[in-house]
Amino acid sequence: MPSLKAFLNRNAFLNRTGPLESPKKAPGLPDGAPADGNADESAVARQRSRASFVDRLAGLKRPWLDRTTVAVSVEGSSLRVVSLADQKVAGWASIPLEPRLIRNGQIVDPADFGAALDETFERLNLPRHRVAWALPGFQTTARVLDLPGLRGDALRQAAVDELERTLGAAVDDSFLFSQRFEGRIRSRYVFVLAVPRSTVLTALEALEAADIRPYTMDLRPLALARAVGRADAVVVNLEEGSLDVLVVASGVTTLLRSIPLPGAATNLEAAQNRLVDEVDRALRYYDDSNPDRPLDADAALYLTGRLATGISLAERLRTMTGHPIGRLSTGLTFPADFPVAEYLVNLGLALKRS
Prior knowledge:
It is a single chain. The protein is of the alpha+beta class. It has a domain at 230-329: ATPase, nucleotide binding domain (Nucleotidyltransferase, domain 5, 2-Layer Sandwich), CATH 3.30.420. Helix content is 32%, strand content 25%. It has helices at residues 38-58, 110-123, 152-167, 197-209, 220-228, 268-289, 311-321, 344-351, and strands at residues 69-75, 78-85, 88-96, 102-103, 106-107, 131-135, 141-146, 174-180, 189-196, 216-219, 233-239, 241-249, 252-261, 300-304. The strands form four sheets. The chain has a five-stranded mixed sheet, with helices on both faces. A hairpin with a 2-residue loop joins β2 (78-85) and β3. α5 crosses α8 (344-351) and α6 packs parallel to α7 (311-321). The chain starts with 37 loop residues before the first helix and ends with a helix. Residues 1-17, 22-37 and 51-65 have low confidence and may be disordered.
């Protein structure tokens, strides 16, 4: 069974600090057309000069630009994009998508989605050589297995057998990833992740249609855990159409649950009530599954996503769980007006080591 792998691509370009915007042209003026008046002629000349400069840059080797990363995630009916250079956020944007392209957080039509993605990259002048892509966590399974003394094919087969035993179903329709923990004592444990093949292959088909080969792909919940960067934490992400709940203990995402929530944006109260219920369920399940390794009582709870907002929601969760509400802090630099909680998935993608 194949494992998830990174893919490589080519081009590069500059992004500016601030929200990403479409290039502007003179009202009513076709690209490159002359206009009456010296001011308009001067503007067209400058535009042509910039285009010529960009064309010249495209033919050069630019190692100082090769560090530019574009991190992309699909959140509800929008495309979230962040460009970063040298660990700094250079630009960001939320691009509306046609509803027919996405259903319950999944890509429905890869060809048309890819065409929309291609148009977005072209319009925003985004590089395609180093794109990090977020996969939804729906129907994904994460387990920590006790498999001492096994390596290579034997380890892989044992992981498959254990997953099939616990899930009660074959994992032939999944990509399987496994990694043994480091350390003399922890090395007996293996982190195993099973991601639906359809989720990965559909995303790759859409990206290929946009002439993008991502250098890395990662699950949205794992990107969130990486961005939070805490050894012990509860992370809750609420967006239009989806809810993610994960528990991180001793630096390992030991519980991962992603749920489609159709209509979450139109009924915010119902979506937040579901969030509270799922957090309670997740923590109870963790306690029952790990009686000898309880989650640290001081482990903070982090609220992320466009819909996980409001003092009342934070207070409800703090009172119910007994865990403090954490304040987001990443190792990346960004402008003061950058909405961190909304783009935390993208930041987590950028922090992933290829």
